[in-house]
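<instruction>
Derive structure tokens from the sequence
<data>
Labelled lines for chain and fold:
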Amino acid sequence: MADKIKSFFQKKVKDQKFKHAGKGHKLTESSSSQQASTSHGKDAPKRQEPTSDARVAGQAALARLEGMKTNTPKLNISYASIQAQAKKELEQEKQALARQAAEKSSGSTDQPGSSKLISEPKLLAVSGVFHRCPLISEEVLDKEAWFDKIQDFLSAQLSDDEAGLSACLIIHSCNDGAERINNCVKTLCKYLENICNEPNEPKYWKIRMSNKVFQEKVKGLRGTKELLEAAGFNKEKLMHQDQEEDFLVWSPERSNIDSLTTLIDALNSSESVSLILDRNTQVLLPSQAAQRSELPAEFYKLTPEELKREQFERTKAKEQNEMLMTQAMREKLMKDKERKYKYTLIRIRFPDNIILQGTFAVDEKYEDVLNFVREHLLTEEFSFHLITATREKLSIADSDKTLESLNLVPAVILTFFWDSSGNTEVPVHYLKEETLSLLQNV
């Protein structure tokens, strides 16, 4: 069964590559016949020659464009403009904070010209968490949308005779939370193993659907209904404690022990269709970063009540960062943060005050952040380092540590510095032009 699942995925990868290879042609077909075939047998429309007046007008336009050209690269112009805007915003922010401090000390908060920076509504730093799945398509979607697509894909690829295999793959690929999936798989295997071990014991043929274990570990997960149907279970009304209840009832007429053993093997050996976390790369000015500070609920592993409490606790974070903390206090803070977050928002502030932002999973390594920064740098010839808000320099030794263990959750700003230890003149521009084009509209 494991070999069958592996060959299934290999076949799908080959099919995807074949679909994107373009239109084929015969080896004996000449290049001219290929070109003719692409025209679908239709003659290309003849182009009319421009009039003498049109030629004169066109030449004049080209001359004007030539006169407007300069030797300054386009990137430098755009970079200079962005840098100037970022510098201006920082000056405005400093002035606003100074006015706010003066108003606070005088006890007045309604003076004319007071800062609007603090009163502006907070916006989400990102609209959500998105993923890619190269096996299916090149789209960037949220996880639930991908679960729908993957479930449709797997259901369509496998025949009715392989409905059990399809269900196993859906269980592993279309549900969120590794622990939740593992508990579901263990429970389903237990149901099937009980029948395999004691096939003549009727009590193992029935699953009460209101049972707490079934409700908490099986019901509601994608693929479980199809798996149990493939195993030979059917929904029926039976009496339980003097009242009718819904049961899933197994019948040897709908399945056999060999089929159940095969499904148990498939449940334990199936691998999920992998989703790749999309970085959702953004480039921000300082004012945009200040406004877009709230994180979406997808970043947290918390209930709504815990999330409200977390929002309250975040107001104390700045005080904790500013105070001197003992090692014991730091360890306690880290322990409190463990397993609270699924994702983290990393912002890289460059010396020109432009901010590069990306989304990461908390169990990713610091090396992944370094690679993210490198792929957006205009030049990769110089080494660099990043510094935390507490002025702690992250080093190469931290590369293999998780972002959670480095306390880079749930959202942090790291400051970028070139490593000038080689006494070499470092670049004054940082990001690629295509990265700068992602600058968010104000």
About this structure: Residues 36-42, 67-77, 109-119 have pLDDT under 50 and may be disordered. The first strand starts at residue 123 and ends at 124.
